[in-house]
Design a protein that fits this description.
By secondary structure, the protein is an alpha+beta fold. It has 37 helices and 28 strands.
Length: 1014
């Protein structure tokens, strides 16, 4: 992004930054406020640091905004990391969110600054170093700080602390993103070298997981608390430059790390070149997967160079949370599509986890602060964290599991810090446990046990079909555990010693939906209670289960036999063939948790054991599949807890999967009467940001507030006042009966062909005003066709195309190659309806045509003699109904005659109301004609209806009048003030009409009782 300072003071801002005048930089250039901390704006921190001879660091708050203070510490030399953390600890007692900048300005030292800012992936401040004399670094920092500039709107409306934190993180979390991106490319190179060495993908996945662990262990002091503990990098450097002994050394290292040492030693006896490592255990190095001993020549040399370059990266900055995306990058797009994988960004993972359960936990921490019983509340919250079991049954490389674990550890660390600040934890001498000082007292050990993390990785579960990402998920969980232990070390000077590994996440390789029955050998429904073994007594004791993830998306037409069988087993008697493959995970999660609740109730314990949420394609809340999915869920007591309406699902991986999604969270807890606790999130397509709306009491299956109705496909209109709408004619011709603009002169020059040339419109031609034609040969004789070179050649090409088809029905159409495959052209004037329109259109763009204009199968037609249908279709009521229950193609609105039109709940209206609707529709047509008259040429509907803001005022006024007439026709007292009000009316009318329809059905005759002989 380019640096844009709205008041053009970039040069001044740059000067402030380089000169270290950071108060002026934030207050004058960025528009932040003065410090509001009063006497607390100056802090003194005692440190024991040779870089700080005075033993004292002075810190000043130079600016603040939305509760986020900016602290500056001016020093001769940048203090050690330990001293920086001590300063941060002092500042954290004053404000949980903060920005701290250390400015080196001593004589003889290069001007430097160290910025420590709030990170999305850390419970503490993350650091960024600036060399003031490096212009590129200065410009990069200015570019990030541009996000913190307060606009006039910000000043007028205020900016929340969460909004400002989001800006800061977007600006400053680039180190992690960049490191991970570079690391992913390096890992791709290692993958290719191992493949060239002749290893299978399964072997490569194991080796890559081990290399990840070793690289990360080096840079997170896993082998030793010394910052110089790069044992793995040192081992690689010790190999031959040609790489001839690298495979042998790695094989020896893998074996060593799996060999349990004797006595009190941390590692088995090893040669000097393998010194510095510890016994790992945990199954990480258990299986023998040797690198090929024959790896030599260019492959061996390249592999060594790649591995050495990879080891030189700072792996402590690489995010385990996006390892899945990293490893997706080394698999081709075809593999991802075949498996339905859509790997996820961290932001999108948190969209699911936060409203599912994390936000509720954070609220409990916030609400506990400063209460009289705060220590008790905090300890209870820790126990609640310890009792959570989390599962992602389509875990891939573990994004959801990793982030859930990390966020829970961050929350637990915040609890521990708060308890310490309240004097509830004594952290003195805890560091002696880490360095292994002899004679550590039992009191110190007891204090350590009191802060031992209760959130452990063995409370996290996953199912993954592919061994490759499963192995990465297991590894990444060890790594994120280590990262969080380091955060704990920074805060308390103590963290658990993890090697040898004693705990691991439960990542099961296998199909989430099916398994093979050992007794019968048949494929059966997989029992999730064996994957996540929580008992009713566990629930009674406080255990809660949360299930979430991003299951594979496979539409109806693309499901294979195995996937179809999995869905049949998951859904049982409720199975409907047109549901997306991802819905099977909703069915299984709902059944698992419902069964667990019923078993717990048998113990006379009335609790809801857990909730679930999944990412799915937006097709599950649109059109025909909705009733099939939600009817069983609602029947079984589930309700929507939160929802993200349609948004683009992002992936961190190269060549990322593009898909439009929704997120739906479900609970069986009862909503208090008249409460508004259901959270709703919308995506703003103009700003590409997610916006949380006001909470509602209930959401229905279409993710709108309204009656919990399910609109099913109908063959006839529900309302007696509207006729059927029919799809247009389908050529099935290989393009040979269609005449494009470039072909028109040649076809029109043929007298016989010109006789049968007709305008041809589909959705695109209708909306964008494009010209296209077709050869409509319904009345053409064989002699006429044979007399025309153009017609005979094209008809012959149609016959050939149809005969080459693999479909029998298409082959049969070769008998009449001059005709469209499906002919549904009206014989009188009609209204044409596009099958798809942009979601940005304020109204459905329909138009009248004479029967001489042929409508394709990409649009619909309906006879409209008086203009009533045109008016109805052009109203806000219609497009609101479409948005609520209709399908979408990506994010575009997809019209359906069977779901949208046939279910439109138009009640009986008076002749006067009908007359007003027709008259208002004619004013819309008149406004359109006026626009074209002023332009002196045809104007497309796309231009007329680009957006509500750009509509011609007269056209918009005409639509307002039309909406008034149509809204009243549907039962409103006047024109509705919002689409939400229209939806309420629409669902009410739908309930009334369907109830009346059901009541009008003849009662079923009772079955005659069979008479039996006495």
């Amino acid at each position: 992004m380019a640096v844009v300072w709205p008041d053009d003071d970039l040069d001044q801002a740059r000067s402030y930054l380089v000169e270290g005048r950071l108060g002026d930089f934030f207050r004058e250039s960025l528009g932040w406020d003065e410090s509001d901390l009063g006497d607390s704006s100056f802090q003194t921190v005692k440190v024991d640091d040779p870089l700080v001879p005075s033993g004292v660091l002075k810190v000043e708050c130079v600016a603040a905004q939305s509760g986020i203070p900016v602290w500056v510490c001016r020093v001769d030399r940048i203090p050690s990391n330990t001293s920086q953390l001590e300063v941060d600890r002092t500042l954290r007692a004053l404000s949980m969110h903060r920005l701290c900048i250390f400015v080196q300005e001593g004589v003889g030292f290069t001007p430097r600054q160290v910025w420590r800012w709030p990170s999305a992936s850390s419970s503490r401040l993350t650091r960024h170093e600036l060399l003031v004399t490096d212009e590129a670094q200065v410009e990069a920092l200015l570019e990030r700080c541009a996000l913190l500039y307060l606009t006039s709107d910000d000043i007028a409306n205020g900016v929340s602390i969460l909004g400002l934190l989001d800006r800061m993180r977007r600006g400053f979390d680039v180190e992690t993103v960049n490191e991970t991106r570079v690391a992913s490319n390096q890992m791709a190179g290692l993958f290719e070298s191992l493949a060239k060495a002749g290893m299978s993908e399964a072997q490569i996945s194991t080796v890559m997981a081990r290399l990840l662990f070793l690289l990360f262990a080096d840079d997170t002091q896993m082998w030793s608390e010394s910052e110089d503990s790069n044992s793995f990098e040192r081992m690689i450097r010790g190999t031959h430059q040609e790489g001839t002994d690298l495979a042998q050394r790695l094989n020896e290292l893998f074996d060593l790390l799996n060999k349990k040492p004797s006595g009190a030693s941390a590692v088995a006896d090893a040669p000097e070149y393998l010194s510095g490592f510890k016994y790992v255990n945990g199954g990480m190095f258990a299986d023998a997967v040797p690198l090929p001993a024959e790896m030599s020549g260019a492959v061996a040399k390249t592999f060594r160079q790649q591995l050495l370059a990879t080891s030189e990266r700072d792996w402590s900055k690489v995010s385990p949370a996006i390892f899945g995306s990293m490893f997706q990058s080394v698999r081709d797009a075809k593999t991802r599509r075949e498996m339905g994988e859509h790997y996820t960004s961290e932001e999108d993972v948190l969209k699911t986890l936060n409203p599912l359960f994390l936000d509720e936990l954070r609220d409990k921490l916030t609400n506990a602060v400063d209460k009289s019983d705060e220590p008790t509340r905090l300890r209870n919250l820790r126990r609640e964290l310890a009792n959570i079991r989390f599962m992602d049954p389509a875990c891939g490389c573990g994004n959801f599991i990793i982030i859930a674990y990390r966020e829970m550890r961050k929350l637990e660390l915040d609890i521990l810090v708060r308890l310490r600040n309240l004097g509830q934890i004594d952290e003195s001498e805890l560091g002696s446990l880490v360095v292994g000082t002899a004679g550590v007292s039992e009191g110190v050990r007891k204090r350590a046990r009191s802060i031992e993390p209760l959130v452990t990785i063995d409370n996290f579960y996953g199912l993954e079909l592919d061994p490759w990402p499963a192995s990465i998920a297991r590894t990444a969980m060890f790594l994120v555990e280590r990262q969080m232990d380091q955060k704990m070390m920074e805060e308390f000077g103590y963290a658990p010693v993890r090697l040898p590994l004693a705990h691991s996440a439960h990542i099961l390789e296998g199909d989430a939906l099916t398994e093979i029955d050992e007794a019968s050998g048949e494929q059966v429904d997989r029992d999730w209670s064996k994957v996540l073994p929580v008992t009713p007594q566990d629930v009674a004791d406080g255990v809660r289960v949360y299930i979430a993830g991003n299951p594979p998306f496979v539409g109806q037409a693309k499901k294979g036999d195995a996937q179809d069988q999995g869905m049949r087993l998951a859904w049982g008697e409720d199975y409907a063939g047109y549901l997306d493959f991802a819905t099977a995970w909703l069915a299984k999660a709902a059944r698992y948790l419902k069964t667990l609740q019923e078993q717990t109730e048998a113990l006379d314990v009335k609790v809801v054991p857990g909730d679930f949420a999944f990412v799915s394609t937006n097709s599950i809340v649109q059109g025909q599949p909705v009733a099939s999915l939600f009817a069983p869920l609602f029947r079984d007591g589930w309700r929507i807890k939160f929802a993200y309406r349609t948004f683009p699902w992002e992936s961190e991986a190269a060549g990322k999967a593009a898909v439009h999604c929704v997120i739906t969270g479900f609970t069986r807890s009862e909503a208090p009467e008249k409460s508004r606790t259901v959270r709703v999130f919308d995506y703003d397509w103009s700003t590409r940001r997610t916006v949380e709306q006001e909470p509602v009491h209930t959401l229905n299956a279409y993710l709108v507030e309204g009656p919990n109705v399910l609109v099913e496909k109908r063959s006839k209109p529900l309302s007696s006042l509207i006729p059927e709408v029919v799809r247009g004619s389908q050529p099935t011709d290989g393009g040979n009966l269609i005449v494009e603009v470039e072909d028109y002169p040649v076809v029109a020059a043929d007298p016989m062909a010109a006789r049968y040339l007709r305008p041809f419109v589909g959705a695109k031609e209708l909306v964008q005003g494009l010209e296209r034609w077709c050869l409509w040969l319904d009345d053409a004789t064989e002699e006429e066709i044979a007399s025309s070179p153009v017609l005979s050649a094209r008809v012959e090409a149609v016959a050939h195309m149809r005969m080459q088809s693999t479909k029998k029905a298409t082959q049969e159409l070769a008998q009449t190659p001059h005709l469209f495959g499906e002919m549904r052209q009206p014989l009188e004037a009609y209204v044409c309806i596009p099958s798809v329109v942009s979601e940005k259109r304020p109204f459905f763009t329909v138009k009248h045509f004479s029967p001489e204009t042929i409508t394709s199968n990409l649009a619909f037609t309906a006879i409209d003699p008086d203009g009533f249908l045109f008016a109805l279709l052009s109203s806000s009521m219609l497009i609101t109904w479409q948005r609520a229950i209709g399908g979408q193609l990506e994010s575009r609105l997809r019209f359906s005659n069977t779901v949208v039109w046939n279910n439109l709940p138009l009640p009986q209206i008076s002749e006067e109301q009908r007359r007003k609707v027709i008259a208002a529709g004619r004013k819309v047509l008149a406004a359109r004609e006026a626009i074209e008259e002023r332009a002196g040429e045809p104007v497309s509907l796309a231009d007329m209806y680009a957006s509500l803001a750009t509509m011609d005022p007269a056209l918009r006024a005409a639509h307002d009048e039309l909406d008034s007439a149509v809204d009243v026709a549907f039962g409103a007292s006047r024109r509705c003030s919002s689409d939400e009000a229209r939806l309420k009316i629409l669902f009410e009318r739908y309930q009334e009409l369907t109830a009346a329809e059901e009541a009008a059905k003849p009662a079923k005759k009772p079955r005659a009782r069979r008479r039996t002989a006495k």
